[in-house]
Amino acid sequence: MVGTHTVVRSRRKASTVAVFGAATALLALAGCAGEASSANGAYGFPEAKQEASSTITVWVDADRQAAAKAFQTENPDTKIKVVTYDGSANGSNSFRTKMQLFDRAGSGWPDVVFSSQNNDAAWASQKSGGKQAFAAMLDKGLVPKGMLSNFTPGSLNPCTVDGRVYCLRNDLAQAVLWYDKSLLEQFGYALPTTWEEYQALGEKVAKEHPGYIIGTAGDAWTPEVFMWASKCQANDVPGPKSLTVKTDSTECKRAASMLDALRQNGTVPVVSVFTPEFLKKYSGKVLMMPGPAWYAGAIFNNPQSLNMSAGRLGVAAPLPWKGESEAVTGNVGGGTWFISSHSKNLKAAEKFVQFVTTADEYQVNVAPGYPAYAPAAQKWIAKQEASKYYATSLQPVETAASRVWDGWGYPTFSQEAIWAKTMTPGITGGKSIVDLLPTWQKAIENQAEVNGYRVK
What span is annotated as the signal peptide, if there is one (predicted)? Predict the structure, then answer.
């Protein structure tokens, strides 16, 4: 069960095989006539003069080449040119940088772009330097309403700005509780049903089975797994240019305090799951691990990682905190597809994006991650269960998909980068996460202000 985040953010090598035109050549075009457009397009944005038979240019990362190939197989009469780039992997921001160059040149925009990031709609939906926003508005007729309504509830939140949809999610990366069913039964432990029980189990494991772990806190997405699931309001985006940051809340402190306790007793070590150290110390000793859906394929069912044998890996729905009626969860990745507002063949561009996000030929038969499109997701779950690898039903993965808390938003900057730069060194050095919360608050505020946000 490997999602977009697996292949893009796992700190493995990203393939960048495309060669773009030199920036100088683009800039030389600046001042030339841009595309002819209609000031009041039918879809809510100025449209270029349409050329129904024109070739569309599609940008994908290396792993989405399969999506483009599947489309070409099923739609041989639609002409497309596929260009591979890094997908803005690991926060490279290449998508935005390239579009800014095309804005200055007045031409060159691709018709469709895949991004591995969830925060691109924040900038792509807005004008830049007086130039037309790159992203086409999708929910004013360009994409059928019936199709939009079939996406998993909440999955289009990263694509929605001021109530309008500007992209479609490829896959989701909802956090769940993965666990080794065989080990749990061997040790005689019950599966925790709350975060409080999870912490108590960690304390028990530390005493009775030292060396075994119930999670990790050494990756940049640690806050997305633990703080987000605790409703920590560190990243609330109520408007396009406003951000609410309250890391001193009870919700933030309870998650931080839990991590401090489990880190101290060794059951939630500060180590990245994609390091040789993790494999050397914890292979065969992972009792459980909260993490995204793609952990199954990236870590557990992976010969290059934990390589857990079939019939052992179980999954449970996100945990609630005591006294809360329903659990929420975080999200670690999942890609997005954009249609360019500059496209001269919107019909073909929409046809492509609709196919790669909804069609069984790609999302069910080929895609490694959990589809954002609900009908495809149900079939994808059935296919995974048919493999007989899992020790339990995968229903909790589906349940978690619609429980991603909407109080954690998608600004133009990366929360992971802030955590990695500000928090990880302190945590690794032995400092308390609770004590570091004010430092995190200040770092988020500073980054937000640099990016033009009003901070509350």
Answer: 1-30
